[in-house]
Amino acid sequence: MAEKKISVTDVALTLTDQPFVDGCTIKGLASVIVDHQYQVAGINLVQGPAGMNVILPFDERGNEYFRPINPELRLAIDKAVQDKYREATSKETTYFQEGVFTSVWDGGTEIESTCKFNLQTGEITDIRRKGDDDVPNFEDLCSLDEEYVESANGGTRYKVCPNCHNYIMKDTGTMFACPDCKHTEKKE
Fold it and tell me: What domains appear along the chain, each with residue ranges and CATH number?
C-alpha cells in the first residue's frame, strides 16, 4: 500500500514588521491547514542575516510541532508559508489587511473606524466610521492629537501621517517618514 502524501491545503498570512531577537524581524504571522483537517497556528516568518526562516510554534517540551514526526511536512509548511509571503509582497499583488483606524482628539476623545491597510506600501484605504452611537459632534472637536492604525485583532500600533492621513509613517530609526507625501517627524 502506497503511503499517503501529506500536504498543506491552505495558508493564512498576516504581514507584519515586528522586531525579533538578534536584529531579526518578524515579517509575517501564519497559520496553515494540513490535509484539510489539522491547523498549525502561531507560525512566524522571520527575516534575518541568513535570509527568511519559518519558525513553527513549540510544544510544552520545547520541540517544534511536527519536526521530529515528519520532515516532509515541515518542508511543505516552510514552502507554503514562504510562497504565500512572496505572493503577498510581489509588485503585482497588493496585500491589504483589515484594521482599526483611530483618531484621538482634544486630549483623549477617540473615534474608531474600520479600514484596510498595507504594511508593505503603508497605504490606508476604505476608512469607515464604526457607527454613530458614541461619536461626538465633529463641530465640537478642536484639535487632532494623533492617528494610528492597528490590525483588527489588536497588536502593533502604526502611526498615521498627520499631513496626508492616508499612509502609515515608516520608522527609519531616527525619524518617522510618510512614503507618500514625504512628511517627516523626529522620534521622541
Answer: 8-89 (3.30.1120.40), 97-186 (no CATH)
